[in-house]
Each structure stands twice: as C-alpha cells, then as structure tokens.
Amino acid sequence: MTHPAIAAHGLRKSYGDKVVLDGIDLVVPEGTIFSLLGPNGAGKTTVVNILSTLVSADPASGTIRVGGHDLDAEPQAVRAGIGVTGQFSAVDGLITGEENMLLMADLHHLPKKEGRRVAAELLERFDLVEAAKKPAAAYSGGMKRRLDIAMTLVGSPRIIFLDEPTTGLDPRSRHTMWQIIRELVTGGVTVFLTTQYLEEADQLADRIAVLHDGRIAAEGSAEELKRLVPGGHVRLRFADPDAYRAAAAALHDVALDDEALALQIPSDGSQRELRAVLDRLDAAGIEADELTVHTPDLDDVFFALTSSTSTGSGTGDTADVPSRPSNPSQSDQPKENVR
Amino acid sequence: MSTLSLAVRDSATMLRRNLLHARRYPSLTLNLLLTPVMLLLLFVYIFGDVMSAGIGDGGADRSEYIAYLVPGILLMTIGSTVIGAAVSVATDMNEGIIARFRTMAIHRGSVFIGHVVGSVLQVLASLVLVGAVGVAIGFRSTDATALEWLAAFGLLALFALALTWIAVGMGMASPNAEAAGNMAMPLILLPLISSAFIPADTMPGWFQPIAEYQPFTPAIETLRGLLLGTEIGHNGWLAVAWCLGLAALGYYWSTSQFNRDTK
Fold first, then answer.
1. Which helix (DSSP H) or strand (DSSP E) does residue A320 occupy?
2. ipTM score here?
3. Sequence-ordered list of residues with C-beta below 8 angstroms from that of A60, at least 6 positions apart, any chain
4. Residue A189: how many CB atoms within 10 A of its CB?
5. A103–B95 C-beta distance less than 8 A
6. Which residues of chain A does B262 touch, with a Cβ-Cβ cutoff of 8 Å?
7. Are B105 and A106 in contact (CB < 8 Å)?
8. What pLDDT score does B31 carry?
9. Residue bearing the bigger pLDDT, A271 or A121
C-alpha cells in the first residue's frame, strides 16, 4: 500500500456564518468502499464536492490529497484520476445514451475506435444497449443512474465518488446498483459512497463514517459501529407458564416479561452464545415456542449517534470506537449546540 | 497534451455537442428567427407607406425603406438569436452534466467556447435566412465592393460574437431557462429603440443620445454604410469598440461565474 486513495485532515467549510464541515478527518485506503453516512443536510454532498474539486475547502483546512495529489495545488491531476456520479443525474438529456458515452470518450481523449469500443462495452455491461439510441431524458430513474455510472467509468477512474447513488430508486434498481458498486472494487477501484440508507452502508462499505453536525460522530466497520450500541439479545417466548419459569431459572442474566411469557438474554448474536443458551435449555429439558435473535442494526447506531447532541449521552459513546481517527478536539462538544 | 491542443480538442467536442442539440431541437432557433422576419414583413408591407414617408426628405418609396430597414433587421436577428445561447447555457447549468464536466480533467473554458462558437454559427445561419428573405422582398446593396462585403460580414460576425458572450453571461447568471429568456429580452428590445426602423434624428431630442450611442445603432449605421454607401463616420469605430467591449465583458462575466464555487 503506497498511499491512501483519499486523505483529508481537518476538512472545514462554512458558508458565511453557517458551519457545514467543522474539521473532519478522512482516510480511505485504496481498493475499499468507504461510506459517509448522515441525515439530510449533514454535509455529505459538501464533502464530495470538495474532494471532487467542485468546491474549495476553507483555507483553515489541513492538507487534502486525493489519488496522491494535493487538491489545491494540482486540481487537474486530481480530476484526471477520479470519476463522480452526483446526486442529481449528470447525463445530457437532450442527446442519446450512446452519444453521452461517446461525449465522455471524446473528453477523455480516447482514440475514436477505442472510444466506440469502450462505450459499447459499458452500454452492454449496464444493460443499456436497447435504450442506447433513445434520448437520455426519456430514460427511467434507474436507467439514468446506470448511464450516469457508465459515463463515470469511461475514463477508468481509480477513485469513484458516488453521492447517494440509490436515492429515489426502486428496490430492484437499488440492488442492481449495489451489485455494480461491488463489482467496481473488485477491479481495485476505490469507492467513496455517501448514503442516508444504513442498510446500504452495511451492505457495501468496508468502513463507515457517520457525519453529524459537520463532524464525524463515529467511524469504523459496520460491526464496530454496531458494538457501540447496547441492545443485542436473544428473546425466547413460551406458551406454557411452567416452561417459562423453568427456563428463567435455568438461564442467568435474563430479563423477564411475565405478561408475554418471554425472556430476554443479552447476546451479541454469535453462534457460540446462541449455542450456550440452547445447551442450557436442552440440559433442563425445556423447549421454547419461539426464538428470535435481535442484533442492534445501524439504525440503532445512527439514532444513538445523531439524536440530539444536547443529551450528551449519544456522543459520549463514540469515544469508545477503537479506530476513530485521533483528533485532538474530539471531546469538544460540537459548536452547533450553541445555536 | 499541450494546453492549446487540449483547449482546441475539448472545445471542438463541446461544439459538436451543442450543434447536436441545435440539430435535434431546432425549434428554439427557429422561434427566435420568427421575430425579425415578422417585423421585417410587418414594417415593409403593413406600415411600409407611412414608414417610407418618414425617411429621407419624405417621398421615399417602399423599396427605399426596404433598403433602410434590412441592415437593422439583420442586426436585430443577431440580438434575437443569441437569446438561444442564454437559454441553452442556463439550461445546461441546471443539468448535472456541467458539474460532471467540472470534475473532469478537461479545458475549463471549453464548455463556453463550445456554446459561443455554436451560437455564432447558428447566428450566421440565421443571418443567411433572414438576408435571403430581405433579398426576396427586394433588398439590393448599392455598389458595395468585395472588400465592403467582407467588412460587412466581419462586422456581423464580430457583433454576433460580442452579443453571444453577453448572452452566455446572462445564461450563467440566471437560475433557469425562463429567467434567462427574460434577462436576455433587452437584446431584442434594444434594436427597437435604435436606428433600425427610423432614423435616430427623428426621435425626441432627449432620447436621441440614447438611441444614437447604444450598441445597435453604430453597428446598423456601419452596415448601412458598407452595403448602401451611406455616411459611416464615427459609427465604424464606435461599433467595433462596442463589440470588443461587450465581448470582453461577457467573457469575464461568464468565466468568473463559472469558476466560482457551486452552491
């Protein structure tokens, strides 16, 4: 590993008095999917805009390198190595899908023949051959998004920014898009993905950063983030009150719900812990009528981290994240609280 | 690749894109062409008798008024067709595709150069059409030399370039296509208060300086001089100065807006 694909230190941006990004650090290793997760208005698009040279960061920001090039000093070199698919489709609706692809090939200065080949390949790969001769404005949302990504891939970028690539897509198109994104990284491409869908980050990302109020509230793998929130448990429900009482006696650390005849045993949902519970029940000769495993999902994490920071409890947890980038000011409460 | 060849190559690509738009959706350009043609026919065939009585020392006939009117209508054609550039730039800026261009390692100005060259070519095509209508209804130049024809052509191209840059700036400054169309209205209104339809010195005294020194009048008078042999005088350099000034202004206005951060 030579250098990370993206490395930003103390990234800041404000519009007038409004602080959008209040010093965030990002390191994305090559060939990984990094997901920036946050509610609407958290500043995700601003991060993408800055890293893709559309918007300049505040001068107070530290160094930002994308693809090994300094963003300020060599914007054209950065642009040469990236591909961006924005939140709003970046296709030319007046011309056909194929013409859009050839336009990209021309702008990447591919020789005519190679341009045609690349365009045809990508149209094929993204299932757009039939629609290739139709104006892009007539495409459905999912098709537009596929064309959008196909256009981004024409120049074989090493780093791809996807700003909410599945927002507004139906479930099938969303899954198609996920498949596309997974295939991208198998070729060694780095993907920087923003999303407001927790499931999407969970499904795709190697690392997730939760952006809240202009700061990274937490960063880690999906698993690491889920560990931040308590609440994983196994729930056993019984029809027979006797079995219920027997089970409560056989197991340790259980929470009782007498009315529902249900037991809750804290658990991380791992096979070993589950087997331990089942073994105890077997040993006591008890059979539960229903067993469900509850793991905290990213929703829990998300709500815990982004719920009103004024309570303090949510942000307090984040200090435990093992891999959180070191930031001398991380214990500061976000300034936005003062508003 | 050197900066220059990059600029030429990317601009040519962008020009192809704009011409593709124009070819596929000619209705915008054709609509804009309608105004000058309608005005030409209206003023010649409906108002023609009254209007021709107003020029010269009275007693001019309709063919003299046609000769008087056509140069003005040609410049008006430029003013009305460049509105297309304002509208298409504004439309473009609202499309994500511009954001995509900005994140690509292409020549920064190529988006504009494509628009400007495309627009100038469309204006020239429009001028040929309107000019043909003028000739059809009886416009003839009086003993213009080849050099004068060349100068006339150069003046029209330069004026088209200048107004296109202004229109591009207007398109950049507008939030959407409708606003761009409205903002560019003066480009169609200014010829109405120029010497296109009636001589500036027949207008009210307080208004004459406005009519005389606005960009259209010097250009119209210069074109008349070149094609009809009337007195050009100071209008020649005034027209060229206006063109260069407007082109430079439009260029800096457009590029500074483009280089500004997106919101």
1. none
2. 0.83
3. A10, A12
4. 21
5. no
6. 49, 54-55
7. no
8. 86
9. A121
Chain segment B45-85, per-residue pLDDT in tens:
888 888 887 776 656 678 888 889 999 999 999 999 999 99
In a mutational test of the B interface, the residue from A94, A144, A149, A192 whose CB has the highest number of chain B CBs within 10 Å is A94
Place of tokens 């307090």: A316
Rounded CA-CA distance A314/B242 in Å is 64
Contact (CB, 8 A) for A123 and A98: yes
Residue of A nearest to B10 (CA): A107
Tell if the CB–CB gap between A92 and B99 is shorter than 8 Å: no
Q: Which residue has the tokens 């469309």?
A: B122
Is the separation of the CB atoms in B114 and B14 below 8 Å? yes
Are the beta carbons of B20 and A56 separated by less than 8 Å?
no
Asked if A99 has any chain B CB less than 8 Å from its own CB, the reply is: yes
- Kindly give the residue spans of alpha helices, DSSP state H, lying in chain A: 44-51, 75-81, 97-107, 112-125, 141-153, 171-186, 198-204, 222-227, 241-250, 271-284, 298-306, 313-318
Rounded to 10 degrees, the C-alpha dihedral B188/B191/B197/B199 comes to 170
**Each residue of A112-127: pLDDT tens digit?**
999 999 999 999 988 8
DSSP 8-state secondary structure symbol assigned to residue A300:
H
- Closest CA of chain A from B20, distance in Å: 8
| Cβ neighbours of A152 in B, within 8 Å | 100
Mutate to test the interface with A, among B3, B14, B100, B107 (most CBs of A within 10 A): B100
pTM of the model: 0.78
Distance from CA of B160 to the nearest CA of A (A): 25
DSSP string, chain B: --HHHHHHHHHHHHHHHHHHHHHH-THHHHHHHHHHHHHHHIIIIISHHHHHHHSBTBB--HHHHHHHHHHHHHHHHHHHHTHHHHHHHHHHHHSHHHHHHHTSSS-TTHHHHHHHHHHHHHHHHHHHHHHHHHHHTT---SS--HHHHHHHHHHHHHHHHHHHHHHHHHHHH-SSHHHHHHHTTHHHHGGGGTTTTS-GGGS-TTTHHHHHHSSHHHHHHHHHHHHH----TTHHHHHHHHHHHHHHHHHHHHHHHHHSPP-
Structure tokens at B183: 């903002």
Answer yes or no: are the C-beta atoms of A78 and A22 closer than 8 Å.
no
CB A117 within 8 A of CB A171: no
Nearest CA to A35 out of A147, A200, A176 is that of: A200
User: Of B195, B187, B182, B179, which Cα lies nearest the Cα of B230?
Assistant: B195
Residue B88 and residue A101: Cα distance in Å, rounded? 21
Chain-centre distance for alpha carbon A24: 16
Distances (CA, A) of A95 to A59, A103, A133, A135, A165: 39, 10, 9, 5, 22
Of B79, B260, B101, B55, give the one whose Cα is nearest residue B186. Answer: B79
**Across the interface, which of A88, A95, A103 has its CB nearest the CB of B96?**
A88
Q: Which long-range contacts (CB under 8 A, 24 or more apart) does A113-118 make?
A: A118/A154
Contact B105 A76 (CB under 8 A): yes
Classify residue A292 by burial, with Cβ atoms within 10 Å: 0-12, 13-18, 19+.
exposed
